[in-house]
Amino acid sequence: xxxxxxxxxxxxxxxxxxxxxxxxxxxxxxxxxxxxxxxxxxxxxxxxxxxxxxxxxxxxxxxxxxxxxxxxxxxxxxxxxxxxxxxxxxxxxxxxxxxxxxxxxxxxxxxxxxxxxxxxxxxxxxxxxxxxxxxxxxxxxxxxxxxxxxxxxxxxxxxxxxxxxxxxxxxxxxxxxxxxxxxxxxxxxxxxxxxxxxxxxxxxxxxxxxxxxxxxxxxxxxxxxxxxxxxxxxxxxxxxxxxxxxxxxxxxxxxxxxxxxxxxxxxxxxxxxxxxxxxxxxxxxxxxx
Length: 289
Fold this sequence. Notes:
Blueprint: E1 2-6, H1 12-21, E2 25-29, H2 33-43, E3 46-47, H3 51-55, E4 60-63, H4 68-75, E5 90-93, H5 99-111, E6 115-118, E7 121-122, H6 124-130, E8 133-137, H7 141-151, E9 155-160, H8 166-194, H9 199-206, H10 214-225, H11 234-251, H12 256-270
Parallel strand pairs: 1-2, 1-4, 2-3, 4-5, 5-6, 8-9
Antiparallel strand pairs: 7-8
Helix pairs in contact: 8-10, 8-11, 8-12, 9-10, 11-12
């Protein structure tokens, strides 16, 4: 297919690369032109200087940008992709953002006859690079049927979960669960160390039992080593948790643990850890040592 990819950050760069490797005709756009040039040099695709230009003639336009405002700037503003997309084309937003902005963009797309899917992803940088992301999708079956085979280039688990907005709501569930898991893991590591246990051996055993999780298996060794210069940044997680907490204030959900962990992440930011991996919750305990 002829596709466009808007946003070549940590996630977008490899995702667009997988589309190219799968044989699609890919045009990319990135706000920082040098990143688009680097992508073209690596994958031999094409680049455009505006989102609108990138979307011309595309069957599917994919996006993975920063936040609600970034989404609006590359979709509905004067040089946004909706201005040049053809009726019947599909716009797929992989950004983690609010359900409200998904509905706004969907309505604007509908006015042009463009189909829309909100499709945030989970799996982090490694998942994007290895092409094994989980993709949570909101939208119509019609749009999903067109886009899903193409998303298989970088998605291992791709699921249509309901109408527009459902993908973003599901991603909020994902981040709520991760926040609690990481705080529990940080407390467990700290407890093991305070108790005089060999934490390496403890977690090597319990990761295979009922306490096991992706976070434990993939993060306990780096936490024990004090290594956090990789992965999903604290700044990004606070953005995501803020979206979830805002949504909870509207729908009445109670998120006491998420509220506490969000505050803990703000303390990590105060320590200068905004760009550290989310497993850096352990660093909070260093203040007491």
